[in-house]
Amino acid sequence: MIPNQLHTFIAVVKNGNFSAAARKLGVSSAAVSKSVAQLEKSLEARLFHRTTHSPTLTEDGHELYKRTGHLIEQLEDQIRLSTDKQKAPHGRLKVNLPDSFGRMVILPQIPAFLEKYPDIELDLRFDDRVRDLVKEGVDVGIGIMPNQESLLIAREFYKLQPVLVASCEYIDKHGEPQQPSDLHQHNCIAYRSSTTGRKKTWNFRENGQIIQFEPKGNLVVNNLSAAMKAVQMGIGISTVGIEHANSCIEKGFFRRVMRDYETDPIQVMIYYSSRSYLPAKTRVFIDHMMQHANNNHEIGLDEIIYEL
């Protein structure tokens, strides 16, 4: 017989602490603590070291999770699978995605998705910071960070070509850089990562080698749309995705510079839990996004101004 409290124990292990497990299970922290205490009493073993910080597993706790965690997960997956076969995809789906890229590439695909799956409630989180999907209970993430979490798997989703752009007004006033070393004489608009707090370096390909350049200037932003707006106002030069800048280039607002030094496209990934079973709502969202990944949407100058 499987104790009812075993599900709560596994939730605490997977979510890192009692409060996070309570949020995941939709109960109070006190209820989670009581459930774990009942399981410890039933097994006559202490499962967690309780401290002022996050609880850590005891040796008995490690052994219990090792022997039962995957079995309980498989059982839950089978129950969900049986339920999903009888119902259309439904429920709340949390998706974390980069701000500007999300609005440019993902958001245009959302109306068709919601029309096809009206019982799914999308919770889209536009945030340039890299989140811990498992800890925060996010179902799907999109971004360029490598898959370093063993509990996640990643699929190639979109190729984003970085380009260096400046306004025609800026180039008329300051000249056009021809090679990376020329950038020392220009005002470079840098991007600061919301995750690390560090400025992003610019990569170029020169003589078959990748070189890194640290942009220097009098403006640093942490949002791609702000960088685009700054370029449009003639403040300086910045690097953005070609999908963001194409419309502005074609209309003559921007000029694409140092094209011979551009690197290969950056691979954007879509990542999610590596469980053997994916809920129907997650699977259909991933399938829809993969199907429409190449339907590029060019963000125009009017949209940039509206965003800000």
Automatic annotation (TrEMBL):
Gene Ontology biological process terms in this record: DNA-templated transcription
Gene3D superfamilies the record matches: 3.40.190.290, Winged helix-like DNA-binding domain superfamily/Winged helix DNA-binding domain (1.10.10.10)
InterPro entries with a match to the protein in the record: LysR-type_TF_proteobact-type, LysR_HTH_N, LysR_subst-bd, WH-like_DNA-bd_sf, WH_DNA-bd_sf
Organism: Marinobacterium stanieri
SUPFAM superfamilies assigned: Periplasmic binding protein-like II (SSF53850), Winged helix' DNA-binding domain (SSF46785)
Limits of the HTH lysR-type domain: 1-58
Family statement: Belongs to the LysR transcriptional regulatory family.
Name the UniProt record assigns to this protein: Transcriptional regulator, LysR family
Keyword set, alphabetical order: DNA-binding, Transcription, Transcription regulation
One matching Pfam family: HTH_1
Molecular function (Gene Ontology), one example: DNA-binding transcription factor activity
